[in-house]
TrEMBL record:
The keyword Metal-binding appears for this protein: no
GO molecular function: peptidase activity
Organism: marine sediment metagenome
Protein name in UniProt: Peptidase family U32 C-terminal domain-containing protein
InterPro entries attached to this UniProt entry: Peptidase_U32, Peptidase_U32_C, RNA/ubiquinone_mod_enzymes
Similarity comment text for this entry: Belongs to the peptidase U32 family.
Length: 338
């Protein structure tokens, strides 16, 4: 770890702290959201031990975050702003451990998310008879929260004293991580440049990555029944991740590492860190230079588009499900320190 020189180490178990300080004295230490830090006295405790940043629990309101910042101004605060929410308090759920025979531990970054599973009731003595668990507008559905999406509130969180924003990414694709990071980066940069961002456009862009519907979590109010997804526990993106741009041959021709099947004539979005354009696939060539109609997953191909970005460093291509004729049922309800 000393040789790798990470920017920081995130941990949650207090018993691990002495070893971290002893063996890695020069590397900043951050306390994880899994440690369930909910108030300023807990933040003071970790600050006094030498922790440089606290990733606050997901169950805090904007007012509580601001209070913590005011009471403990000499420590960095980080907040989860995008991704899955846990049905339990941060770091306190043992469902995954129990239902996976201790093989999938939530606090080790490997939660099997049993809160997303479909369940049936079985009457004791009659295991062959299964009953659907149903819900109504009064509640009873407690296991499948929507994903948190706080892009609208980035200015408020910065003003409250937050210096770093956490997004889910460990089990996500490069497409998901890049799309989410790009949207939040635009929001952060707009704040510091004094510009007025198109929040609706940025919010809508996030819907193209997998999600279970969006919620503000605990930031403004305590969650009610509208903060849960009653339809599906799986993320349902409005787009298909088609490929990664690996090299530029000319202004309209690029090498592509294919992630999902693509074909000539397909309308796609060409997305780079600097720009996003809509274009059409005109020609596809395999590694032998032979022209092909369709490129399948994991193929390495060269594609000519009818247009390309003005500037290119790296990028991805995607298609929108509506344009591809794929049915989507997404339903929405409405780090870097400086």
């Amino acid at each position: 770890m000393q040789e790798a020189k990470p920017d920081g180490i995130i941990f949650a178990d207090p018993g691990f702290y002495p070893s971290l300080r002893k063996h890695l004295p020069d590397i900043p230490i951050h306390i994880s959201t899994q440690a369930n830090v909910l108030n300023y006295e807990a933040v003071k405790f970790w600050r006094d031990l030498g922790v440089s940043r606290v990733i606050l629990a997901r169950e805090l309101s904007l007012k509580e975050i601001e209070q913590i910042s005011q009471k403990v101004p000499d420590i960095e605060l980080e907040v989860l702003v995008h991704g899955s929410l846990c049905v339990s308090y941060s770091g306190r759920c043992l469902l995954s451990d129990y239902l996976s025979n201790n093989e999938r531990k939530a606090n080790q970054g490997n939660c099997s998310q049993p809160c997303r599973w479909r369940y049936k009731m079985v009457a004791e003595g009659n295991p062959d008879e299964q009953y659907e668990i149903t819900e109504d507008e009064k509640g009873t559905y407690i296991m499948n929260p929507k994903d948190i999406a706080l892009i609208r509130y980035i200015p408020d969180l910065i003003d409250a004293g937050v210096c770093s924003f956490k997004v889910e990414g460990r089990t996500k694709s490069m497409y998901y991580a890049s799309l989410v990071a790009k949207s939040y980066r635009k929001m952060i940069d707009a704040y510091y440049s004094g510009k007025e961002p198109d929040v609706t456009e940025l919010y809508n862009e996030l819907t193209y990555a997998g999600n279970r519907g969006f919620t503000e979590g605990f930031l403004l109010n305590k969650p009610d029944s509208s903060h849960y997804n009653y339809i599906s526990g799986k993320g349902n993106p409005k787009s298909v991740f088609l490929g990664i741009i690996t090299d530029k041959i000319s202004d309209d021709t690029y090498k592509i590492s294919v992630k999902n099947q693509l074909k000539i004539g397909e309308n796609v979005d060409f997305i780079t860190p600097e720009s996003q354009i809509n274009t059409t696939i005109l020609e596809i060539f395999d590694i032998y230079g032979e022209k092909i109609e369709i490129a399948n997953t994991n193929a390495e191909v060269v594609i000519k588009f009818d247009d390309g970005p003005e500037y290119w460093n790296k990028g991805i291509i995607r298609s929108k499900k509506e344009e591809a004729g794929v049915k989507t049922e997404t339903r929405l309800h409405s780090g870097t320190c400086y």
